[in-house]
Specification:
heterodimer, A: alpha+beta, 8-stranded mixed β-sheet, 4 helices, B: mainly alpha, Rna Polymerase Sigma Factor, Chain: A, Arc Repressor Mutant, subunit A
């Protein structure tokens, strides 16, 4: 229907905007469009009421300024706190980095370095560890997990407590920090003999 | 801008525009208390953004943009709350406003049913008397989109009123 196409122009027409002459001609002689114009006029009247029926708002100034006061106070506090806290934060950060680096670097197994032929009495590990630090070490061998003790910078593990067959054995050593996090993992291979001084020739 | 000037400027804006913006928000969300909170929020944002306001548009248009964004965030939050059923939203608070005893209460009923994007445009056009070009700037959409939304909104209201016998049989 032609009128449907012109509907949009009817609103413009009633607002005094220019519309194409052919549409104007059609509208003036079309009953449907004239009825439509009456409806639009009434709708516009109702829409214009939007401006008439305004509600007086509450006085918001006091609340807004109160909010601003809170915001400014918080902003100042954050600023002051940042000024004070920043040096502390960076010192703390450096401390953490330094300790992390130190703990990583200073725990170092210095004995045994390579595969060695040992008797059970000779199985021990020597570590370089940082002073005043608490570490827990566990050793895995023969499917047994056992805590081992540090004494100064030496970590003892007495292999004589176990019946160990002669031959190659892998010792897995895990070193934990106080929070139970593994900070070093080492694997060492030993060749154990039954008796001290027994002659054994090992060629890798 | 120092603190004193900033506050005086804000006070001036509140004197000039708070009533219009409050009513706009009230029409849009249909809840006086919520509209009050929103209008406070709008002027608080105006205060925070005042040092950044360069005067590219009129202060009123700039404040309206802030009001529209605040309103959109509010509606988004309401929708999210509704989806997660954290809050049961009364029907009249969702979209429209129905002040009892008003002659044009059917219009408020129509607002309740009207999609929000159409409602924004029709309120800016008839309530704020902005032109389509200014609305396109405020809503950050092309002018053609404003015109088509305006037409759809008008037709929506006309059909709504027609169905309720406003234009006679």
């Amino acid at each position: 229907m032609e009128c449907e196409k012109y509907k949009e122009f009817l609103w413009d027409y009633l607002e005094g905007k220019e519309i194409p002459y052919e549409i104007l001609k059609h509208v003036e002689s079309c009953n449907f469009c004239l009825k439509e114009i009456e409806k639009i006029k009434k709708t516009i009247e109702i829409l214009d009421n939007l401006k008439e029926n305004l509600i007086e708002p509450y006085d918001i100034k006091e609340d807004v300024f109160e909010e601003i006061e809170k915001y400014e106070r918080l902003r100042k506090n954050v600023k002051n706190f940042s000024l004070i806290a920043t040096p502390f934060f960076f010192t703390f950060l450096l401390f953490i980095i330094f300790n992390f680096y130190k703990s990583k670097k200073t725990i170092e197994i210095i004995y045994p370095k390579e595969i060695q032929i040992l008797t059970p009495e000779e199985v021990y590990f020597a570590f370089k560890i940082p002073e005043n630090k608490n570490f827990i070490a566990q050793i895995d061998s023969y499917d047994i997990t056992q805590d081992i003790e540090f004494f100064k910078d030496i970590c003892f593990y007495d292999a004589r407590n176990f019946e160990i067959d002669p031959g190659f054995h892998i010792f897995k050593i895990n070193i934990f920090n106080e929070k139970g996090k593994i900070i070093k993992k080492v694997e060492k291979i030993f060749y154990l003999t039954n008796y001290k001084c027994e002659e054994y020739t090992y060629s890798p | 801008m120092d603190d004193y000037k900033r506050r005086r400027k804000l006070e001036e804006f509140m004197n000039l525009y708070s009533k219009k913006i409050f009513n706009f928000l009230n029409y849009a969300i249909g809840d006086k208390e919520e509209a009050k909170d929103l209008v406070q929020d709008v002027f608080f944002k105006v205060y925070k953004s005042l040092p950044k306001f360069r005067g590219d548009s009129s202060p009123y248009t700039w404040i309206y943009k802030i009001a529209i964004n605040t309103l959109r965030n509010y509606i988004k939050q309401k929708k999210i709350k509704k989806i997660f059923s954290l809050e049961k939203i009364p029907e009249e608070i969702q979209m429209g406003y129905d002040p009892p005893g008003r002659p044009s209460s059917l219009l408020y009923d129509a607002f309740k049913k009207m999609p929000h994007d159409l409602k924004e445009v029709i309120l800016l056009y008839y309530y704020e008397e902005y032109g389509t070009k200014e609305i396109s700037e405020i809503l950050d959409i092309p002018e053609g989109t404003v015109k088509s939304r305006l037409y759809r909104a008008r037709e929506f209201i006309k059909n709504y009123l027609e169905k309720r016998g406003v234009y006679g049989v």
